[in-house]
Design a protein that fits this description.
8 helices, mainly alpha
Length: 160
Amino acid sequence: MAQKRLSEATKKRLKAGRLLLAGKGCTDVAKAVGVARQTVYTWKRLLDEGGIDALRAVPERGRPAQLDEQQLAAVRATLLRSPAEYGFGTELWTLKRVGAVIERLHGVRFGQTQVWRILGSLGFSPQKPEKRAIERNEDAVRNWKRSTWPRLKKGSIRAK
């Protein structure tokens, strides 16, 4: 019989249980496993009442995930490529575009809030592109900064 794979939440509970059994305090355990202190108190109560098996038997909360780990890995690989390869006009990934790609790849539609959460779980963070005109002339900007700007700056000091 194949063993059932433990969820990340179960792994956290079991790690917390082992730390509690080793004599660590709830605050230290909460920091170690990355949960709220109150959560550790709840787990400690379960541990005290039913042992480590009680932590293993906690039912998973919330709705089951619609994408498995392989699908999430495929989404991550997609996002590391250019949006232009997927028919988008610019080199920016937006929540809307990511949602559209997920729907194309896996047939699952998510709202923008959930797309945001998925991106966070994949290790992506929000980035703002630099706002620069396409027509920007770098040589002209450099010359202006070297010659015109210092003169204007000196003039403003005298005006005071």
